[in-house]
Amino acid sequence: MHIVAIGGSDAGISAALRAREVDPGAEVTVVVADAYPNFSICGIPYYVSGEVTHWRNLAHRTYADLEAAGMHLRLDTIARKVDVAGHVLHLTGPGGVAEEALPYDQLVVGTGAVPVRPPISGLADLGPADGVHLLHSMDETFAIMRTLEETGTQSAVIVGAGYVGLEMAEGLSARGLGVTQLERLPEVLPTVDPELGALVRAQLEGHGVTVHTGTDVKAIARADAGAPERLRVDAVTAGGEQVSVHAGLVLVVTGVRPETDLAVSAGAEAGARGAIWVDKAMRTGLPDVYAAGDCVITHHRLLGETYLPLGTTAHKQGRVAGENAAGGHRQFAGSLGTQVVKVFDQAAARTGLRDHEARAAGFDPVTVAFQADDHKAYYPGSHKIAMRFTGDRETGRLLGVQLFGHKHAEIAKRIDIAATAIHHGMTIDEVSDLDLSYTPPLGSPWDAVQMGAQAWVRHLGAQ
Amino acid sequence: MHIVAIGGSDAGISAALRAREVDPGAEVTVVVADAYPNFSICGIPYYVSGEVTHWRNLAHRTYADLEAAGMHLRLDTIARKVDVAGHVLHLTGPGGVAEEALPYDQLVVGTGAVPVRPPISGLADLGPADGVHLLHSMDETFAIMRTLEETGTQSAVIVGAGYVGLEMAEGLSARGLGVTQLERLPEVLPTVDPELGALVRAQLEGHGVTVHTGTDVKAIARADAGAPERLRVDAVTAGGEQVSVHAGLVLVVTGVRPETDLAVSAGAEAGARGAIWVDKAMRTGLPDVYAAGDCVITHHRLLGETYLPLGTTAHKQGRVAGENAAGGHRQFAGSLGTQVVKVFDQAAARTGLRDHEARAAGFDPVTVAFQADDHKAYYPGSHKIAMRFTGDRETGRLLGVQLFGHKHAEIAKRIDIAATAIHHGMTIDEVSDLDLSYTPPLGSPWDAVQMGAQAWVRHLGAQ
Q1: Does residue B217 sit in helix, strand or coil?
Q2: pLDDT of residue B388
Q3: Which of B42, B75, B114, B264 is catalytic?
Q4: Is A463 a residue whose pLDDT tops 80?
Q5: Given CB atoms, is B58 within the 8 Å cutoff of chain A?
Q6: What does the CA dihedral A143, A187, A397, A292 come to, rounded to 10 degrees?
Q7: Residue A396 near residue A429 (C-beta atoms within 8 A)
């Protein structure tokens, strides 16, 4: 039995690890496009910031760890074509030289995603050598570090204020750069409601980041001679005002799209947002071809089939694919889109659906805001948690929760309590039944999430 | 409709608040034995430590808050007797003078618990004026503070190393006292496995607390003239060795027993550990008499009827009793015994059953220990979490989790993820299906609790 996984990031490596775990006799090969298998791309901002002191520390596991787990790694190797009928993967080896036909019994495609290139004038013509960067891989990380170190620039423009944009704003600020963040949508972190996005924005601004929201970037160009920095970014606000910013580094982080060419050209169907369609067993429909991670559609417990690329999901999908490729019968249980991001001293998190998402999915949602202390206010160091609960009016079912608060306010694991509750289809009222822990320095007799749930129930009763 | 709640702590106040919430027209009276309604007795150690700067801050709500919620408070008033047939509660007012007959339609008994007095020679003869204290009420708190302030003693003996004992060891240490902790059982914090208790003990000792476990206190006595402090505590270790400690303050905190006299003399049945029997609607069986909190049995989701007094449970039971007294139909969903305690810089938590508890309850438990980082180790400030997972061998059902780690490692809310999983009867394998949040500074792609769950599954597979 030879299992081949394509992709050295979360999905491919998880599949390979799991395949070896359930079938220690299986031969497992992982085809990795670059030299950095199992690196934590979520950790890149903390390498740029200097908090991670060596890029090698970003590896979840070392090359030796991975080989010790029983997989063969083929680095700097590109998967060119899948011969589905022949059960052969066509590869190009390091340097783009040697062609090879690698037979497989079971294949797991984990080709991931690539950064979106928004239609900004000049973006196609400028690159890392000019100080204009995308960010999704270790090579792109090294290119950013070269720009920072070789030019010594003290100013950066970040186009996009999603998770990566925010983390990079913090990371570059930590290095001492002046950062300007430009976001097309009306508020930063558009994956949460603008009421919480505004709190995130206040964190950014409180730490010296200049934020322009509702601002569409039109052009990136080399600055005129005599300009303070070598790049100029031109944008237009929603009100029609022109914004021009000079910077030595421009980072464009406006999202990703699934990398599907290999699978689709082999005959795989595309689904939501053009991602590779898979069933819950991570089967593509092509015989003996699985796919997982940022390249595939996401089965969502409340939305059905969607596209929602996240590292956590890629790990889970990869593990399912690896188990099944090795003869197992596991199903991906479905995502809730649970996410958390730290922005300077605060954290913002969400799980499930926001109001408009729930409405689009056919629910009749009600969203209620509430604030509660992370622990008893009489004990020093308590912090307010801003919460938004979304539930279905008729059934009372908990559909989504959003939280914002201090990084030590256990925001991340509080959103996980909500995620676990939504996983089980609880009503918001039933959240009060959960036996959650309490000690004054770390909580309240009713936890903050239970107080928020009770506020939602009261609100509905008062309507 | 006149609803009377007896007890000014968690259960009584929760019942009164909820009764007013569901029936704003109800007249609600709360009979409070002392002058401190709705005080957080869990917060007392932090007032003793000095972290809570005024005892009034320990009130969950002020007198004015409670009256504004629509309840009448009868302070310093003792409930003497319930005339069940006549629907009358006989009271003695402030100073033990005025007798009164208070008619009610619905009664909620929340008489709470009282400290156990272990059979220690001398304990019955010595009291607060001698520096010997129990601790369960505000009056007892004030007595301790008087001993500390008037004698200026710099040494304390704490008999018992449960939650309160540990918190008081920290609180008295924070005031600069030298603390000796004596525990009869083989390890401190006997509500968790000794492997984690040993880690708690290391915290205590690392902060200067002298700990003697397996040590039975035999006598407390006034010290001889010329002794360094005015009290002497004599104990015997499991090995038969004599331990004598001098101290200016002795605190005996070895647990509580339910205060049931009022309800039992009115005809209520007793259940587990002599606590008042109630059904899940918190009905005692006596017409129109509910009971809740530390005085009643606990319906446990895995154990059935037991006795497990906790503030969180008292809040929930009180809320159910209040809702039903006001005409509702709510049921207490059951406890899992979820608890957390902070000990200096660390926290220990548990939910569900430990191995021996699960075995006694008829399961075939397997317990597996595991360690994982609270967040990606490449990001500064990560901490190891020591975990113990208990599951049923045959069904794979998650029965219990115990955690120990740094106070900023989100131990409290991680145990709550486990509590929510157990609430829903998940298998340990299914814990990996939960969509939990991740960002490198606050978690891992598989959360620590999922890594622990996977370790359990691997262990079982390897057997």
Answers
A1: strand
A2: 98
A3: B42
A4: no
A5: yes
A6: -20
A7: yes
Residues near B150 by Cβ (< 8 Å), separated by ≥ 6? none
Q: Does B349 touch chain A if contact means CB atoms closer than 8 Å?
A: yes
Give the Cα separation of A162 and A353 in Å (integer).
17
Tokens 């770390």 locate to A442
Read off the tokens for B19. 């009764």
At A197, give phi and psi (nearest 5°): -55, -35
DSSP bridge pairs for B115: B256
Are B419 and A412 in contact (CB < 8 Å)? no
Residues of A numbered 62-121 whose beta carbons fall under 8 angstroms of chain B's beta carbons: which are they? none
Question: Terminus-to-terminus CA distance in chain B, angstroms?
Answer: 62
Decide if B133 contacts B143 (C-beta within 8 A): yes
Paired strand residues for A71:
A28
Minimal CA separation from B251 to chain A, in Å: 21
What is the DSSP secondary-structure string of A329-391?
------B---EEEEETTEEEEEEE--HHHHHHTT--EEEEEEEEESS-TTSTT--EEEEEEEE
Contacts of B69 in chain A (CB under 8 A): none
The string of pLDDT tens digits covering residues B273-313 is 999 999 999 999 999 999 999 999 999 999 999 999 999 99
What's chain A's length in residues?
463
| Residues of B whose CB is below 8 A from A447 | 413, 416
**How many Cβ atoms are within 10 Å of B355's Cβ, its own excluded?**
16
Could you report the predicted ipTM of this complex, rounded to two decimals? 0.97
Whole-number Å distance between alpha carbons of B16 and B7: 10
Other beta carbons within 10 Å of A158: 29
Give B379's contacts in chain A (Cβ within 8 Å): 43, 46, 51-52
Residue A389 · residue A370 · CB < 8 Å: yes
Which two tokens mark B351? 């939910």
The C-alpha atoms of residue A117 and residue A255 are separated, in whole angstroms, by 9
Q: Which residues contact B221 (CB under 8 A, 6 or more apart)?
A: B121, B122, B126, B231, B232, B234
**Three-state DSSP state, A229:** coil
A222, amino acid identity: R
Q: Tell me the per-residue pLDDT of B214-238, one tens digit each, with 9 for 90 and over.
A: 999 999 999 999 998 999 999 999 9
Other Cβ atoms less than 10 A from the Cβ of B392: the count is 18
Specify the amino acid at residue B55: W
Q: Cα A263 to chain center, whole Å?
A: 22
Report which DSSP code applies to A148. Answer: H
Residues 6+ apart with CB under 8 A from A188: A161, A166, A181, A197, A200, A201, A204, A211, A213
Longest CA–CA span in chain A (Å) reads 71
**How many whole angstroms separate alpha carbon B20 and alpha carbon B73?**
13
Beta strand B346-352 pairing with B339-343: antiparallel
Q: Where are the alpha helices (H) located in A152-265, listed in sequence order?
A: 163-174, 194-206, 261-265
Rounded to the nearest angstrom, the gap between the alpha carbon of residue A267 and the centroid of all alpha carbons in its chain is: 27
Q: How far apart are CA B385 and CA B374, in angstroms?
A: 6
Give residue for tokens 């067993």. Answer: A281
Question: According to the model, what pLDDT value does residue B96 have?
Answer: 85
Query: Can you give the pLDDT at residue A5?
Result: 98
